[in-house]
Design goal:
The structure holds two protein chains of two kinds. Chain A has strands at 4-6, 10-14, 19-25, 32-38, 45-51, 56-58, 62-67, 72-77, 86-93, 100-102, 106-111. By secondary structure, chain A is mainly β. In chain A, strands 2, 4, 5, 9, 10 and 11 form a six-stranded mixed sheet that branches. Chain A starts with a strand and ends with a strand. Chain B is 0% helix and 57% strand. Chain B has no helices and eleven strands. In chain B, the strands form two sheets. In chain B, strands 2, 4, 5, 6, 9, 10 and 11 form a seven-stranded mixed sheet that branches. In chain B, β7 (64-70) and β8 (73-79) form a beta hairpin. The model of chain B has no long low-confidence stretch (mean pLDDT 91). The chains are: A mainly beta, B mainly beta. At the A-B interface, β4, β5, β9 and β10 of A face β5 and β10 of B.
């Protein structure tokens, strides 16, 4: 069936380095993609989103890249900080439906 | 303050009990969602309400019964649950469907 998956379940990076979290999706009809961050004991928090008419979008220290040709999504975090340690989820959706499908998540650990 | 408040934060109940989870959002959103988050599994969408009308029931067992009396409140009524229903139940809201969702911090449910 259609699904969203992550290439790496865990990622460790040195503080100050850049982090890249990858996500593959299989539903070519998806046109809206979101990244969420979930810290321990809290609900997911929206980070950034991108629609299929774009291939790059930047926020504060974060950049999302969308490659529709290979159905790949990535989240880049610049100058990673200890507070960035969390589980990161990508999610996909179709504009005409309510359903958002979440990937299994990648755990990011920042080494001081 | 996330804008989405869930109560209780923790709930332990027996399989024959009846309890309800409550979600309240202070963001003026029109869509509300219930998700189930189990260990090592992606977030599972359970129910979607759009302008107080249920628009999605993702094959959820009837022992889970949602209620949305107004756009600000969402309930999940529980009865005769099974041990495999132990999980973190997350509520979310969005301005309209397929906009970024704001999550509460969840109710950690344990079924004895």
């Amino acid at each position: 069936g259609e699904s969203v998956g992550l290439h790496l379940p865990t990622l460790s990076v040195q503080e100050g380095d850049n982090s890249i979290i990858n996500c593959a999706y299989s539903n070519s009809a998806s046109d809206y993609f979101i990244w969420y961050k979930q810290e321990s004991g809290k609900g997911p928090q929206f980070i950034i989103d991108i629609r299929s008419n774009m291939d790059k979008r930047q926020g504060q220290r974060v950049t999302v890249l969308l490659n529709k040709t290979v159905k790949h999504l990535s989240l880049q975090i610049a100058a990673t900080q200890p507070g960035d340690s969390a589980v990161y989820f990508c999610a996909e959706a179709q504009s005409s439906y309510d359903k958002v499908i979440f990937g299994p998540g990648t755990s990011l650990s920042v080494i001081p | 303050e996330t804008g989405v408040t869930q109560t209780p934060r923790h709930l332990v109940m027996g399989m024959t009990n009846k309890k309800s989870l409550k979600c309240e959002q202070h963001l003026g959103h029109n869509a509300m969602y219930w998700y189930k988050q189990s260990a090592k599994k992606p977030l599972e969408l359970m129910f979607v309400y759009n302008f107080k009308e249920q628009t999605e029931n993702n094959s959820v067992p009837s022992r889970f019964s949602p209620e949305c009396p107004n756009s600000s409140h969402l309930f999940l009524h529980l009865h005769t649950l099974q041990p495999e229903d132990s999980a973190l139940y997350l509520c979310a809201s969005s301005q309209v469907r397929n906009q970024p969702q704001h999550f509460g911090d969840g109710t950690r449910l344990s079924i004895l």
